[in-house]
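hi! just following up on the protien thing from before. the input was this:
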Amino acid sequence: MSTIEQSASAQHDSALCVNGIDIDATAIQAELEHHADAADPLEAARHALAIRELLRQRAVELKLIADGEPLNDASLDQLLERELSVPTATRADCERYYESHPARFRRNDIVFASHILFAITEHAPLALIRQKAETTLHAILATPESFEDTAREVSNCPSAGVGGSLGQLLRGDSVPEFERALFDAKDTGVLPRLVNTRFGFHIVRIERRVDGEQLPFDTVEADIARFLGERVRHKAIQQYVTVLASRAKIDGAQLGESNGPLLQ
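and the predicted 3d structure came back as:
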């Protein structure tokens, strides 16, 4: 039995109720599949379902959908457009962000890196994989010279055969979550935290960085404005859900810092 299945079985009868509306174990079990990489998949699933139900109830209250009707993407967009006021990023906002994050606006940055992959597999308990990865990371941080030998012994990537070396990498060569760890900092050496991607947990070592060409502000202003707008909107939605939760009766989920798939 997987970690997700064990968690669901252990709390199968634990109620989740939002303003008198019960969310049954079947719905929680279905939602679990979307949270396999969370530290606590069951808690994340319950959290997401509680948020969704809060938003659905508010849409019913505003007569955007009928009572008992599910909240679809169109209804959610309509609700948020009606309830939220999100300011647009100004040119000055964009310039400040550009000046504060120069590494994000270079072309052809090169990173020479190695990694050790602890792959997520269908039958292995996620918590045990994470624990093994963290234990290995602590050992390598204490003895960095052991990185290559450890990669050969335990990494689930073909690069294990060459001590974990990935050679030189450009932006776009890897998945976004791995790319951010490589390029959005100036660190070299073994990174102090695991990098979590859709493939598993990575211990990453940066050998060398070669800075590329800085992009002119005018060529990236629109992208920065879009990013800042999305970030402000995300924060506004978090605050909105927190307000909804503060005046709701919720059993079985804690929404102190509201976050979840609807808020990504």
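The chain has nine helices and ten strands.
Strands lie at 17-18, 21-22, 106-107, 110-119, 165-170, 189-190, 195-197, 200-210, 213-214, 250-251.
cheers
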